[in-house]
Amino acid sequence: xxxxxSIIMYVVCTTEVGSLASVGGEAVRRCCEYVRSFxxxxxxxxxxxxxxxxxxxxxxxxxxxxxxxxxxxxxxxxAAMVQEATQGYIPxxxxxxxxxxxxxxxxxxxxxxxxxxxxIRAVMLERLDSHRYAWESMRWTSETELxxxxxxxxxMVSLIKETSVLHRILMSLLxxxxxxxxxxxxxETYGSRLDETFGKVASRDPxxxxxRARLAADINFLHLxxxxxxxxxxxxxxxxxxxxxxxxxKYGTIAIPKxxxxxxxxxxxxxxx
Length: 273
Known about the structure:
Layout: H1 2-21, H2 24-46, H3 51-54, H4 62-85, H5 95-136, H6 143-146, H7 154-171, H8 176-202, H9 209-227, H10 242-251, H11 265-272
């Protein structure tokens, strides 16, 4: 609110006396510098984890990243309003400079916002890799040992729990379009990396039914839970789940060998006679 009040004062200065005193361009320039300083400080505290030192935070969480993204989005909206509100109040000789300053600050803010969303995605993919490596290290070649593991696998349950927490937090912060785009990227990466991991495990013993049964149990559990998240289900066009759907199609069922057919009694008697 303090930042917004300062920006409003710069805009009022521009609209009230900008063209008369030829200070309109300078007022907008200082407004841009103020927003740029705020943007750089936010980036340093959140993306640079400076808040862990200055504010005593133990970690930078998804909530911090999501809130920062919304603050930067608000700054983008304010920058656009400043540009619109000051049109016609800037001396002709300063218009090009003002346009350049506003263009740069909007570009910086947009880049910062993209970095925040990329950081959220990177955090979740790090957790995905941690869980899939743990899952891959189970005793897949020993049916006795594998049967001792929980069903669904502990790694898959933990992955779903963490994804669900992230989804719940961000649903209250991000607008639907950003939420859908973010989880589409997360879903696509989940699908491609899990396909790779499931393929490695399945290739260890393609004929082992206990392996196929565990693969089916885990991918069906994962698919069901992810599909139930709004950003991956009803909010999304289907692109987010497309690769996960393919993994489910490949590993979600157990191939049942055909039962041997009993011999034809009539044919056997005919041949004997």
